[in-house]
Design brief:
Elements: H1 15-28, E1 37-38, H2 40-47, H3 51-63, E2 67-70, E3 74-77, H4 84-106, H5 109-127, H6 131-149, H7 152-172, H8 181-195, H9 199-228
Antiparallel strand pairs: 1-3, 2-3
């Protein structure tokens, strides 16, 4: 398996947590490719743990939908298809629209100011051509609204979907994603709707903020596929 030789494990976490975190990261960033066979003995040796925490970690990763275990046979990284983006983003859009709807009635002045600060940094990252930083700030912006909605179920499902979306981008896109100014404008409109207590607008703008890039990414992936043929 193409595991980096210079891997250094983090400190002060259990063997299972360390294995889970690192294998998950390798699956998300494409170090471990879709369909690749995972050998617990090899992973145990590289991560410096016994095979038991590796197996426990793989079970957790199966629950997340990142691996598929076949008892008595093998364990492999789950395959993802380009059409999965339509399913992932539409689900996340509905969840975050609900979060925005609920958060509008609960959000504090301090959280509004935090959203404004994140969006300012997000817009600056776009302007300076820093797509990875922009994507990170965009995720922080959305996560703050989810946090403000005070719904642990939305937060849990949202976190799971974001893992799959990040993996999707690494697997299917050879180049960093171009985040447009439209996203920052939608964020500003969303903040204004929350400040004025406009629940309907906040929810609708949030949904648009995720469905628009879904269509843009899908078209980009189809374009890359046509160029490779």
């Amino acid at each position: 398996m193409p595991i980096p030789a210079n891997y250094s494990p983090p400190l002060r976490v259990s063997a299972k947590e360390r294995a889970f975190s690192q294998i998950q990261r390798w699956i998300i960033d494409g170090t471990l490719q879709p369909g690749e066979k995972l050998v617990d003995a090899e992973l145990a040796e590289v991560l410096g743990v016994s095979r038991t925490p590796i197996r426990e970690a793989l079970q957790l990763l199966e629950v997340q939908g990142l691996v598929e275990m076949h008892p008595g046979k093998d364990t492999r990284v789950n395959i993802i298809e380009k059409d999965d983006i339509l399913k992932m983003y539409s689900a996340l859009a509905s969840l975050h629209a609900l979060a925005a709807e609920t958060a509008t009635s609960l959000i504090t002045v301090e959280q509004i100011e935090q959203l404004k600060g994140l969006n300012a940094d997000f817009a600056a990252a776009i302007e300076h051509g820093q797509p990875y930083q922009a994507m990170e700030l965009d995720e922080q912006f959305h996560n703050l609204i989810v946090e403000a909605s005070d719904n642990p179920y939305v937060a849990s499902f949202s976190s799971s979907l974001q893992i799959h979306i990040r993996r999707f981008k690494y697997v299917f896109l050879a180049q960093p994603i171009s985040v447009t100014v439209a996203s920052a404008d939608e964020h500003a409109q969303m903040i204004k709707a929350m400040e004025t207590g406009d629940i309907t607008s906040a929810s609708a703008i949030m949904k648009q903020n995720l469905l628009r890039p879904m269509h843009e990414l899908y078209e980009l992936i189809n374009k890359e596929s046509r160029e490779e043929q």
